[in-house]
Amino acid sequence: MLAVHFGAGNIGRGFIGEVLHKNGYDIYFVDVAQPLIDQLNEQKSYYIRLAQEKEETVLIKNVYGLNSQTQADEVIDTLAKADLITVSAGVNILPLIAPILAKGLLKRVEAGAGAVDVIACENAIGASTTLKGHVLDEMKDNKAKEAILANVGFPDAAVDRIVPNQTRDGLNVLVEPFFEWVVAAKGMKTGERLQGVNYVEELNPYIERKLYTVNTGHACLAYVGFAQGIPSIAEAVADQSIRKELEEVLKETSRLLEEKYQFDGAELKEYREKIINRFENVHLSDPVERVGRNPLRKLSASDRLIGPLVQLYNRGIKAPHLVKVAAAAFQFDVPSDEESVKIQSMLKEKGVTETIIEVTSLSADHPLVTQIKAEIEA
Ligand SMILES: NC(=O)c1ccc[n+]([C@@H]2O[C@H](COP(=O)([O-])OP(=O)(O)OC[C@H]3O[C@@H](n4cnc5c(N)ncnc54)[C@H](O)[C@@H]3O)[C@@H](O)[C@H]2O)c1
Ligand SMILES: O=P(O)(O)OC[C@@H](O)[C@@H](O)[C@H](O)[C@H](O)CO
User: Is residue 115 marked as binding?
Assistant: First the structure.
């Protein structure tokens, strides 16, 4: 069995690679980072190390690297014969992957190679559906579009495992022991079911529970921690006042999840506690700069901050702690993070109100704009 995975980074090697390998796949990682690709082709294997008291390792074998910029023909040929295609390169990268993916899928369909599924494992609602839209935009006529629609599934997914940036140890990846991968079965065109993946009919409760708990909580620690000069997630959650803030924020998002999806309150409490426990893992070193990365994306309308805030507002529920985290995200100022630099220059050039409106897509007269502004100024 052959899988193509776009994005040989943290979650690609540290989680998707593990599941694919354990299900008997040879994996072609497609990336743009040549040193990473060279290492994959030299070693053809790497280790996943579990960040826990008694370290465990898993050997991932039969892995190869391809560069989508310099080896386009090889990538297209490999896509045309792949049994499964997965992606974790970042939601902003999906439009960049679409042209080559479209060519590979078309070649496959024209060769009569049968159905295949493409699963985007990004932290976003409907990422595979978004990718499908970009792929269809690449088709030159309706016939090609129809052939893709008939043969290629783009099931949405939710992926959960904390995998920090790897600062040493070559291809090897240090990951937390916990993992969860949920896929919307109804979006699939093949009967392929991976062990270790939970296939569900309705994905929205899973992706919103994950994004608005794990990622909202993570964002709280990153932005509030950063504001207080705290370097890592484990250190931020160890600070009693930040932890209290985190607990309050997660109670607010749980309220939404309870009302919207009728999740059981006690189960959600347990889910929150488990996640806070994961944030406390001292065997992982996860800088607040990674977790807070791309604040423009994280402050966009349906993401982990404004997404739950607007939905709570629409239900008449106040969420003052979430408002504070959104305000802190506007103050995330990391020179190496282009999006944070952009927000800082917008704040200087356009002022607070205009920046909030432009970044969040909230309407000018939305009361949340005033609330976030008041927090930024406070
Ligand atoms: N790291 C985590 O804990 C985690 C957990 C769940 C989901 N995610 C999501 O997975 C995605 C990737 O995150 P990550 O932490 O692995 O990031 P990462 O930066 O470690 O990996 C991204 C990889 O994509 C590659 N890439 C960039 N442009 C590309 C292109 N045009 N074609 C192919 N590859 C390209 C990069 O070179 C890099 O190797 C994000 O959407 C993230 O939100 C991350
Ligand atoms: O990947 P991002 O930038 O969307 O979010 C940063 C972290 O919250 C994220 O990578 C988590 O580690 C991950 O989502 C855990 O499953």
Answer: no
Q: Which CATH class is domain 2-200?
A: alpha beta
Ligand 2 atom, smallest distance to 215 CA:
8
Residue whose Cα lies nearest atom 6 of ligand 2: it is 291
Residues of the chain with CATH 1.10.1040.10: 204-377
Question: Complex ipTM above 0.95?
Answer: yes
Identify the architecture of domain 204-377 in CATH.
Orthogonal Bundle (1.10)
9 is in an annotated binding site: yes
Where do runs of H (alpha helix) occur along the chain?
10-11, 17-22, 34-43, 72-81, 94-110, 127-137, 142-151, 204-210, 216-227, 233-238, 240-261, 265-279, 288-291, 295-298, 306-314, 320-330, 338-350, 352-360, 367-377
| CA 7 / ligand 1 centre spacing (Å) | 5
- Residue ranges of the chain with pLDDT lower than 50? none
User: How much is the pTM?
Assistant: 0.97
